[in-house]
Amino acid sequence: MARTATTAAAAPARRAVGRPSKGAIKKEAIVAVALEQIDKVGVYAFSLRDVARSLDVYPATIYWHVNSKDALLADVAGAVMQEVTPPRGKSSWQVWMRDLFFRYRAAVQKHPNVAQLIGAQLVSNSSLRTDLIDGVLIALLEAGATEENLLEAYNCVISSLIGFMTMELAPMPSEEVSQWADALKERVRSISPLDHPTLARYLPKLANKAFIVRWQNGTEVPLDSSFSANVEIFIAGLEGFLQKKTRAVAASETRKPRS
Amino acid sequence: MARTATTAAAAPARRAVGRPSKGAIKKEAIVAVALEQIDKVGVYAFSLRDVARSLDVYPATIYWHVNSKDALLADVAGAVMQEVTPPRGKSSWQVWMRDLFFRYRAAVQKHPNVAQLIGAQLVSNSSLRTDLIDGVLIALLEAGATEENLLEAYNCVISSLIGFMTMELAPMPSEEVSQWADALKERVRSISPLDHPTLARYLPKLANKAFIVRWQNGTEVPLDSSFSANVEIFIAGLEGFLQKKTRAVAASETRKPRS
DNA sequence: ACCTGAACACCGTTCAAGT
DNA sequence: ACCTGAACACCGTTCAAGT
């Protein structure tokens, strides 16, 4: 992989520049084991010493291949992000973007515990997925983005893309889950219809399927229809945002829109 | 506060039911100190032993007032979430919702490190902010939500509300930030205009202001205009989503819309 | 270049025992 | 009811030293 060379270029020459030299293999093994561990025990309980144990080496060994725990986590996030960017086909930007959203969902559903890494942590330095950024920009320009609103539109794409899944797969309070679930259910049951008639009325519809009122996360209760809704809402909203010309002008002068 | 009594009701009677008895004061002091610590060192470096030191007590003392580190973090998140729900005034649902978004932003900007707690962690059990959920439901019903789409719309509100800020305030790789920033800047500079012409072209516009291509987070470089765009995109998209009747019917029969 | 072996300075949590 | 004092089983990271 060319990535080894790229990394070495930026790094303080900690590794030989030329061949992988079996070191590259070890590095990827470490990332693979780390991903396995995270899948198994979650980001919270994940430890470098565990991956060292899995590889039958001393903890310090890990540090020859990787600069820190954070750097390893970044690599793990990058690994999961591979292949989410759809190929730039002949389809419309809406189709491409929908594809992007669902590919991200599929990727992160395979490794649910990595969602919080991508969403809330580094976001995601080393994994600077050039093709993703490029693809989004191209789609946005095709959608009519201008110099004035490209940045904003881009940020909205990324946050919508990642935000929902981060929440859908957010880890539930560890350990005594059932006990906690019972407590939450009880609280849900005890909501006063007098103080909160609307909430009380619709609670049965929301229970365990709506953010804040659920006791299982997306690995056990996937929120498919809500995710789809989010995609459609975002794309429709984005269309409107990119169509409208500079707000102040449009509002004050009321020109004929060139749709 | 009545909250003490409520907590005791659900909990296994670990505290006397009647008066605060000075214990309630201690509990709130713990949460306050924890919030201070998190503001100072971040969620990652936050430790129970530090709050114990700040309060001049033994670590074990904390455990009389709080069940676990996670529970404490949940309480901290709850504290920050207080007062984000706007009062249910006479305004339109759009105005109320915009208000909600900007109040949340203001609240979490005061405690940026808590954003990842709210976004990626528990979401947010104990802090089950009844008034928030109720308010969102009321707004959605006013907007025309039906039995069929209320759940989806609700989930989209929550994820849009929280998702953007979680990313805007996501912690940058700790410690040697400047070193890391330089590396990222270098990589940004070295992007090949041949492989990625679009990206290369617009990179100056994105640099340090766009997700994935920034080396400072929202505490140092706030993304105000992008946040506003996100609010407008979401609300506009939501309007469309709630307006449209059952998709299949509308598509196949092409009835006159009763707008 | 890659790994060992050991150490440092921390953690969260538990538990008997005090008052 | 509330806190002490000490212990248990861990961490991430560093560093001389080996090969």
Basic shape of chain A: flat
Unreliable sequence segments of chain A: 1-20, 247-259
Major sheet of chain A, described briefly?
Answer: none
Radius of gyration of chain A: 23 Å
Cα separation of the termini of chain A: 47 Å
Quote the average pLDDT of chain A: 83
CATH topology of the largest domain in chain A: Tetracycline Repressor, domain 2
Strand content of chain A: under 5%
The helix content of chain A, as a percent range, equals 55-70%
**CATH class designation of the largest domain in chain A:** Mainly Alpha
Tally of discrete structural domains of chain A: 2
Order of helices and strands of chain A: HHHHHHHHHHHHH
Structural class of chain A: mainly alpha
Seen as an oligomer or otherwise, the chain set is homodimer
Q: What is the number of strand segments of chain A?
A: 0
Number of helices of chain A: 13
Largest interface: A-B, 79 and 79 residues
- CATH 4th-level superfamily of the largest domain in chain A: Tetracycline Repressor, domain 2
CATH architectural designation of the largest domain in chain A: Orthogonal Bundle
